[in-house]
Amino acid sequence: MPRVPVHTLDDAPEQTRPTLEALSKRMGKLLNIHAEMAHSPVVLGAYAGMQEAIARHGTFDGRTREAIALAVGAVDHCGYCQSAHTLGGKAAGLDPERMLAIRAGRPTGDDRLDTLLAVMREAAGEVGTVQDDTWKQAQAAGWSEEELGEGFAHLAVNLFTNYFNHYMRTELDLPPAPALDA
After folding, report:
1. CA-CA distance, 176 to 142, in Å (whole number)?
2. Which of 52, 152, 175, 181 is most buried, with most CB under 10 Å away?
3. Measured distance CA(1)–CA(9) in Å, rounded
4. With contact defined as beta carbons under 8 Å apart, do 100 and 180 qualify?
5. For 79-135, how does the pLDDT look when each residue is reduced to its tens digit (9 = 90+)?
């Protein structure tokens, strides 16, 4: 059960309504995560600010962004984010088998992407620490210093949402992500 009620566009704090309206339009509906973030304008503003910085300055395509989100969500055991980013991954052109592989930490068939996801998984699971070998493998696969640095922004926004969902116990209002094989 969620720790805070889910706002609607009508009862959300006035300060958060423009952001909620934009998110609702972008997502096709007001998601529970955003409606809960609206309880604290600083939380919703921080999330929106990170998303805006990524949209304005980021270089990763949608498939790479969604792959990172799926990998980090799996490390953090965030069912909500895995569900949301399964939908996002589908919209970005990731096939269902590749998304399952990403979530399970298995090779995807894209060696370059796999090296970036290894960096993201390690950073998520080891409180930001990434072993030199993992980092060097990503560099050898062609990821630049700028891109590996950008990866941190994607890691941060996904940690933010994953932790928020655990913190608030956000109820799933999306189709659940397919179960991973044990």
Report:
1. 34
2. 152
3. 21
4. yes
5. 999 999 999 999 999 999 999 999 999 999 999 999 999 999 999 999 999 999 999
Residue type, 67: A
User: pLDDT band at 15, cuts 50/70/90?
Assistant: very high
Angle at 99 between CA 6 and CA 151, to 5 degrees: 80
The CA distance from 128 to 122, in Å, is 7
pTM: 0.96
